[in-house]
Design brief:
With 361 residues, this protein is an alpha/beta fold. The chain contains nine helices and 13 strands. Strands 3-2-1-4-5-6 form a six-stranded parallel sheet, sandwiched between helices. A five-stranded antiparallel sheet has the order 11-10-9-12-13, with no helix packed on it. About 4% of the residues have low confidence. It binds zinc ion (ZN).
């Protein structure tokens, strides 16, 4: 059995995610970090002619902004939550380094034009190189290092790891990859297999909601309760089939037409959880578009952010979209960022605002 160990330059990967989204042809493309190690190992294993392999560990090296202006705390928190998700759900070894912001805004465009402050990333490259070399020097830690990188700075460590008798594979992104890594002749002697382009593996790396069977829990459900769905209810959340959801929204529309205040999902729209926690007004959240009513120009967003508000559903209307996000292009399953517009009077499906398609992880 050959042992793979992955070394991911997280900072590089985030900043090039938009290239992957573009290459996928799916505006809602989200890279599945749970699948990434296995897909890369399969591919490298195939190229080395081995089908007996294991991924002993996946290391990701990244950074996060520290000491930012309080107005920018949300994205920082999201990044930290993302690292936590990688550790807890996918068993990544994450090394994250703070970037000191001295109380300033994250984006240069939000700062004073005369402010010459430049955020400096520290340690990430060195930490990756150290870990790859350290593990290469440990007997039997790994046989093949799979480096998910693009910056040419890693060349010396790749060469050293190979001199220690380990094999190296590189996975990268077109347009964000050092020419020395992709050189077919490998004149720099940095790898043992052809370079893997992540673009070529996108269908296998996309986060998908695979079809499975669930029992509809609506008390008014008619016929066979077991239905096929791509929906994954959170813990404690009820599942309602599309027919029942349709019926609920018909009732809701009728109620709205009759002048009744909007009464939320009514336990209907795909299963807004009765136990879900709603976030306070103005909180920024990440979620997935669900149950879009194309004919009515509205839909629902289910929070999916690996946080305490997961599973809660929010109502949005076409007029709540910002940053060029268009209702027609916002397919169900698309990840979006949004803010909570107001609390819901009924305690269900509060309205969202500033809904924008999410591009990066
Ligand atoms: Zn049903």
């Amino acid at each position: 059995m050959i042992k793979f160990m992955l070394f991911i330059d997280g900072t590089w990967l985030y900043s090039n995610t938009s290239r992957l989204v573009e290459a996928s042809g799916e505006p809602g493309f989200v890279l599945d970090f749970g699948k990434l190690p296995r897909v890369l190992a399969e591919e490298v294993g195939r190229r080395l002619g081995h089908d007996d392999w294991t991924v002993v560990r996946t290391h990701l090296f990244g950074s996060y902004a520290a000491n930012v202006d309080p107005r920018d705390l949300e994205p920082v928190e999201r990044r930290l939550n993302f690292f936590t998700m990688l550790r807890q759900q996918h068993h990544y070894e994450v090394e994250a380094f703070p970037i000191e912001f001295r109380g300033k805004r994250l984006r240069r465009t939000d700062r004073d034009p005369g402010d010459l402050f430049e955020a400096k990333e520290k340690c990430v490259d060195i930490a990756l190189a150290t870990s790859m070399l350290f593990n290469a020097s440990m007997a039997n830690a790994y046989d093949v290092a799979i480096a998910v990188i693009g910056d040419q700075d890693f060349k010396p460590v790749l060469q050293s790891v190979r001199r220690l008798g380990k094999r190296v594979a590189i996975a990268s992104i077109n347009g964000a990859c050092s020419g020395e890594y992709s050189d077919p002749a490998d004149k720099a002697r940095v790898r043992d297999v052809e370079l893997l382009w992540l673009e070529d593996l996108l269908p296998r790396l996309a986060r998908r909601y695979d079809p499975h069977f669930l029992d509809c829990q609506s008390p008014t459900h008619k016929g066979e309760r077991r239905v096929e769905t791509t929906y994954y209810p959170k813990r404690g959340e009820k599942f309602y089939c599309p027919a029942c959801r349709e019926e609920f929204s018909r009732q809701k529309d009728a109620a709205a037409a009759a002048g009744t205040a909007f009464a939320g999902t009514g336990g209907g729209n795909g299963g807004a959880s009765e136990s879900a926690t709603y976030a306070p007004t103005d909180t920024t959240l990440m979620g997935v578009v669900k149950h879009k009513r194309v004919d009515k120009n509205y839909g629902f967003i289910m929070v999916d952010s690996c946080g305490e508000y997961d599973g809660a559903e929010y109502f949005f209307h076409e007029t709540d979209l910002v940053d060029g996000t268009r209702f027609a292009e916002l397919a169900e399953g698309t990840y979006v960022d949004f803010q909570v517009k107001a609390e819901s009077p009924s305690g269900k499906a509060p309205p969202a605002r500033n809904v924008r398609r999410r591009v990066a992880v």
